[in-house]
Amino acid sequence: MRNYISADLKRICRRIPRAIVLASVYVILILIVVLSAGQNTWNSVTFTLIVEQYIAALTVIFGIIELISVYSDDFKAKTMQVAIGTGLQRDRVVFSKYTELLVLTFADLVLFAAAALISAAVVKTGYSADQAMEISVLCFKVWLSIAGYSSLSMILIFFTQATGLATLLYLGLAAKIVSALLSLLTDLDAIQFLHLNRLLLSTMLDTFGSRLVLNNFNVPSFIGILVYIGIGYAATVFLFRKRELEF
Amino acid sequence: MGESVISLHGIQKSYGKHKVLRGVDLEIPKGDIFGLIGRNGAGKTTIFKTILGLSDYEEGSIDIAGFDKDPDKGRGRIGFFVGSDFFDYLSGRENLEYYRQLKGIKDRNEVSRVLKIVGLDTARGSFKNYSMGMKQRLGIANALMGSPEILILDEPTNGLDPQGIADMRHLFQDLKKQFGMTIIISSHILGELQNTADRFGIVNNGIIERVVTQEDLKKSDNCVRITVDDRERARKVLEEAGIKVLGEEQEARSLEDYYFNLLGGEQNA
Q: Which ipTM value was assigned to this complex?
C-alpha cells in the first residue's frame, strides 16, 4: 500500500500540466496582491481579506485538480488492476487513493500559504499573528472540505471507474449547489422545525470554520464532518468490493 | 501431473442472468506452460479475472500458490499481462519505474533487466509514440518485473511481427526452463500456442471442456506424417508391402517457415 501511494505521488508530482495549473493559482494570487497594493486603502486587513476571498475558491480549484490527478490517469493506465492483480486488497486501494488526495491537497494548501506570505513580503505588507492564524485556519477548513466532499465523490469514482460524473458531483458539493438544492427541501414548512439544514455537510463545515477562526474548536460539527467522511469512505469500500474491473 | 500452482474448483460466475462460468475446475501444474483456448465469449477472460481478483464469483474456490484462504497473498507471486495500458506521457522506462515502485521491487536495475529481455532497452520517446508491438513488449516486460513464479498472459503476441512472436515463444520457454516459471497463456493463434505450451485447457460455454497435453495431440492411430524425398517411390513401397494408402495430400509449408527462409531470422534460436 505504501508503495502504491509513494509511486503515485512521485508520478503525479512530475505531471507538467498539473504543475502549470497549480503554479498559475499561486502566481495569480501574488499578482492580485501586488496589483491591489497600489490602492490607497491598502493595509494588512485588505491583504487578509483578499487572501480569504481567494481561499474560498480553493475547495473547488484544488479539489478538482487533485481529484483528476489522482484518478484520471490511473483509470487510463489501469494501475488499480495491476495493484489488485498483484495482491493489494481492494479496501487498501481505496485507502491509498484517498490518502494520496489528502496528501496532495494538503501540500497544495501549504504552498498556497507560502505564496500568500511571499506576496505579503513582495508588497511589504505587515500582518499580525492573528491574521496569519486566520489564513491557516481557513486553509485547514478548505482541506477538511476537500476531504469531506471528495469522500462522497469517491463513491461514484470507484463505482463508475471514471472521473466524469464524480467531478460533477464534487463541483456541485464544493460550489454548494447541492446544499442549496437540499436547503430547498429542508426549508419546507412541513419539516423546517426539524432544522435539518444544520445536518448538511456544508453547514457543518461553515460552522466549524467560523468557530475555529474564533479559537473555538466546535466538537459536534467536527464529529459531523468525520461522520460524512466515514460514510463516503465506507460506502466506497462496500461498493468497490464486488465491482468488476475491466482489463 | 505435478503439484498445482493454481487450482480453481467449481467457479461459477454470472453477469445478471447470463451465466459466464458454470463450474470451472482447473489445475495448473507448477512449471508448465499452459495454453487456454476457446471461442470469444467462452469465458477465458473471466477465468483470468477471477484468478487476478478483478472479478468476483458466486461459488467455488481459488488456490494460488497454496493460499486457498487468502488468494490475495498468492497473487503477490503473479506477474500478468492483460493489455498494454500505460501512462502515455511517460516513456517506457519511466512507466516501468513507476510499476517497480508500486510492486515494491527494491532492485533499481530491474527495469533495465526486463527491458533488455523484451528488446526495448534502447527505445526512446514517450509511450504514446510506441508502435503496437512495442506497447505489447512493454506490457510483457511489466509482467516479468520481480521474476514472478506465475505469469499470466492474455493474447501476448497480438500486434507482434513474426520475429517478435518467435522471440516471445523462446522467451517463455527460457523462463520455464531457467526459472521453473509457470506460464498461462490465452491465445487465438493455435499454431503458435501449440509450439509454446505443454498443456491446453479448452474453454467452452463456461467450463473447461477438456485439458489435453502435447502427448495427447501426438496420439493418433492411423495418421502419421512421414517426410520423404521421393513421394512416388514411397507410395509404391507401401503398396508392395501390402499397406493401403487411404489418403494423400501435399502439405503446404507453413507461412512462418516461408517467412524465415525468405528473410532470415531466429526461428529455431
A: 0.81
